[in-house]
TrEMBL record:
It is found in: Secreted. GO terms for molecular function: heme binding; lactoperoxidase activity; metal ion binding. This is peroxidase. Ca(2+) 2 binds at D252, T254, D259. The record marks R69 as: Transition state stabilizer. Keywords: Calcium, Disulfide bond, Glycoprotein, Heme, Hydrogen peroxide, Iron, Metal-binding, Oxidoreductase, Peroxidase, Pyrrolidone carboxylic acid, Secreted, Signal. Its EC number is 1.11.1.7. Residues 1-28 form the signal peptide. It is an enzyme of class 1 (oxidoreductase). Residues 32-331 form the Plant heme peroxidase family profile domain. GO terms for cellular component: extracellular region.
Amino acid sequence: MARGRGGAIPFAAALLVAFVCSRPGADAAVKELRVGYYAETCPDAEAIVRDAVARAREREARSVASVMRLQFHDCFVNGCDGSVLMDATPTMAGEKEALSNINSLRSFEVVDEIKEKLEERCPGVVSCADIIVIAARDAVALTGGPNWDVRLGREDSLTASQEDSDRIMPSPRANASALVRLFAGYNLSVTDLVALSGSHSIGKARCFSIVFRLYNQSGSGRPDPHMSPAYRSALDALCPHGGDENVTGGMDATPLVFDNQYFKDLVRLRGFLNSDQTLFSDNNAGTRRVVKQFSKSQDAFFRAFAEGMIKMGEQQNPKKGEIRRNCRVANGSPPVVASKVVDF
Ligand code: HEM
Ligand SMILES: *[C@@H]1O[C@H](CO)[C@@H](O)[C@H](O)[C@H]1NC(C)=O
Ligand SMILES: *[C@@H]1O[C@H](CO)[C@@H](O)[C@H](O)[C@H]1NC(C)=O
Ligand SMILES: *[C@@H]1O[C@H](CO)[C@@H](O)[C@H](O)[C@H]1NC(C)=O
Ligand SMILES: *[C@@H]1O[C@H](CO)[C@@H](O)[C@H](O)[C@H]1NC(C)=O
């Protein structure tokens, strides 16, 4: 899965340009997000989301990790605008089919369920983009992680872009220096990058995402040397060469609990993805110091994680948006008969 990733135009920079160039009357606008945004228009919104996320977790423990991941994949591609939720149409390739998302992003039905409840209670008020940000916060809190106030008031995009997702989203092969550079384009620091990668404390990844490092790291025909021998044997058994690449494994030793185990594992060369292990094993990116710090202090990790999620959640799409009635389609689109994207 070679990925041609050119130099991503840092979205924060594009946002700044759009902001500076927008004049009164132009439709581009950076919205003021605030805590309690729906207090008058939909006072139960946050409670409805939390209940639904809790119920989804009872049905399937992993689903909360899958929902939390949506924030990253939404916010990095043209801002937190719910674009990742849109189904493809005959004239628009969706982000769901992008390299990092296809056969991988999941639990869209949890967002659908939340949206249906919110449309019943307060039609046309709560954006899909905000649902993702609230649900991600709740997913972390419900699995033992920190809780934080979410600033709301985002609008949903009218379009999605598979191309932008393919250009921007990082590969599991990425090294720490490339990740530092990518995140810096969003004004996210080395500490933000390491903390946000700690999201891999919950959820699972496919063998598809690690077979290259088990059997042919950087085209060497050899495994990645930055793996403890015992862990490498375990991964070889989980993901044998030529085996089923849809098999999944936890990205730390406690994939149902949001904790700092992920960082303890990286220090012991038990990182699942190359993009995880590189944060500790790359000497020159400045990430190792932070991994060590978080491996020793769960409090420090939790504080930095909440801050990172809030900052990541501020990435905005300056284009004019709407409050979608159905998170999968723009309001102006003809009705869909059935969803073509199957969650698995
Ligand atoms: C730093 C760069 C990152 C890379 C390269 C990366 C890559 C990946 C990959 C390859 C997977 C597994 C996909 C699969 O095998 O199907 C994954 C899963 C996941 N990622 Fe990331 N990720 C990154 C950052 C983040 C961030 C910032 C978040 C959220 C704040 C996040 C949340 C998750 C979660 C929760 C899962 C598990 C999802 C599930 O179980 O369904 N990741 N990531
Ligand atoms: C990290 O990855 C980038 C992009 O793939 C590459 O240009 C660079 O040489 C790599 N750096 C190291 C230290 O391997
Ligand atoms: C970038 O991040 C820093 C540190 O969090 C913050 O003080 C600053 O306001 C941010 N700048 C922009 C343009 O968002
Ligand atoms: C390993 O990767 C390199 C470069 O990507 C490729 O040329 C080579 O055929 C691969 N080897 C195996 C055994 O897959
Ligand atoms: C993995 O799952 C996807 C989606 O269900 C499927 O299209 C693909 O063929 C599967 N791959 C393998 C190797 O089974």
